[in-house]
């Protein structure tokens, strides 16, 4: 049995948030530079150049990439040989969020409908924990803005919808989203599972590497087809038109019931602010 203290967890969460908020993922920066070089629209090319410049300023001056510093979603994989000491895991996570957001915008309200009073520290985080083999604790922290989160959708497709139903739903989602999620976007799709599992895995897919490819070649082909269809919409960077509406699409697929084919789509802005650490 390996011991991990809540203080170590708190510090890890702080570090992940700071990396996510101030430093763009190198894969994303590279993809944006490639998009800028290949973009045919002068306006779109200029927007991409400005976004890249924004990444560089944020890193250099240690300021947030975006004014919407997001809601913290924490995916925790806790090894079954790990014993957490000196407190409660969720308290440690929220203490880390509270500390990291002292210099960042606080965006969380305690009541969603009536009072909508700001909690003033960006807590509580949304925490998804799994028990896995081993003696490590892996944390993935996603700082998700709601311009894109509001554009995410789930549809309980039936098996008869088939591949075309998934394609149509994904393209429709991008079209309805338009400029709202700050394109170019990253999109995570999960097909299968049930209502909540599909949504959970779709969100996990936006924190995947841009090099991710499904093992099944049919799903790889589906990724490519949806990507082509969405980029053909011409929404473009910031909604000003152009070739680059979608940077990357990642698809997950899960076992499901014989009567269903849930399809969840998590939409994320170009920055996809996330960071990971292993304790």
Structural account:
This protein has 279 residues and is an alpha/beta fold. It has two domains: 2-20 and 65-144; 147-272, no CATH class. It is built from eight helices and ten strands. The protein has helices at 6-22, 26-38, 42-61, 89-100, 146-149, 162-177, 195-205, 217-231, and strands at 2-5, 71-79, 82-85, 126-132, 137-144, 153-157, 185-193, 246-256, 261-268, 274-278. A four-stranded mixed beta sheet has the order 4-2-5-10. Strands 6-9-7-8 form a four-stranded mixed beta sheet, with helices on both faces. α1 (6-22) runs parallel beside α4 (89-100), α2 (26-38) runs antiparallel to α3 and α6 (162-177) runs parallel beside α8. The longest helix is centred in the N-terminal third of the chain and has 20 residues, at 42-61. It is globular. The two termini are 14 Å apart. The model has no long low-confidence stretch (mean pLDDT 97).
SSE arrangement:
Elements: E1 2-5, H1 6-22, H2 26-38, H3 42-61, E2 71-79, E3 82-85, H4 89-100, E4 126-132, E5 137-144, H5 146-149, E6 153-157, H6 162-177, E7 185-193, H7 195-205, H8 217-231, E8 246-256, E9 261-268, E10 274-278
Parallel strand pairs: 1-3, 2-4, 7-8
Antiparallel strand pairs: 2-5, 5-10, 6-9, 7-9
Helix pairs in contact: 1-4, 2-3, 6-8
**Oligomeric nature of the chains:** single chain
Please give the alpha-carbon distance between the first and last residues: 14 Å
Number of domains: 2
Sheet/helix structural class: alpha/beta
The Rg value, from CA coordinates, equals 19 Å
Helix amount: 25-40%
How many β strands by DSSP? 10
Mean pLDDT: 97
Shape: globular
Biggest sheet statistics: 4 strands, mixed
Strand order of the largest sheet: 4-2-5-10
Provide the succession of SSEs.
EHHHEEHEEHEHEHHEEE
Strand content: 25-35%
Q: List the total number of helices.
A: 8
């Amino acid at each position: 049995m390996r011991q991990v203290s809540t203080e170590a967890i708190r510090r890890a969460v702080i570090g992940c948030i700071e990396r996510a908020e101030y430093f763009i993922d190198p894969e994303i920066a590279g993809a944006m530079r490639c998009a800028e070089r290949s973009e045919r629209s002068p306006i779109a090319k200029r927007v991409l150049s400005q976004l890249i410049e924004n990444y560089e300023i944020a890193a250099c001056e240690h300021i947030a990439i975006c004014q919407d510093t997001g809601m913290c979603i924490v995916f925790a994989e806790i090894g079954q040989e790990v014993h957490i000491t000196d407190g409660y895991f969720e308290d440690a996570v929220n203490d880390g969020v509270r500390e990291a957001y002292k210099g960042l915008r606080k965006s969380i309200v305690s009541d969603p409908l009536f009072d909508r009073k700001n909690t003033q520290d960006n807590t509580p985080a949304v925490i998804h924990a799994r028990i896995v083999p081993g003696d490590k604790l892996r944390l993935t922290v996603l700082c998700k803005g709601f311009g894109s989160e509001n554009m995410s959708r789930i549809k309980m497709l039936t098996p008869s919808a088939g591949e075309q139903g998934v394609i149509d739903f994904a393209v429709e989602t991008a079209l309805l989203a338009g400029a709202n999620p700050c394109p170019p976007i990253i999109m995570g799709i999960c097909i299968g599972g049930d209502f909540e599992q599909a949504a959970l895995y779709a969100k996990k897919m936006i924190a995947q590497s841009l090099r991710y490819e499904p093992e099944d070649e049919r799903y790889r082909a589906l990724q490519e087809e949806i990507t082509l269809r969405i980029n053909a919409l011409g929404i473009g960077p910031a909604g000003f038109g152009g070739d680059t509406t979608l940077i990357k699409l990642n698809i997950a697929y899960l076992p499901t019931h014989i009567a269903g084919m849930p399809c969840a789509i998590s939409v994320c802005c170009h920055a996809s602010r996330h960071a990971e650490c292993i304790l």
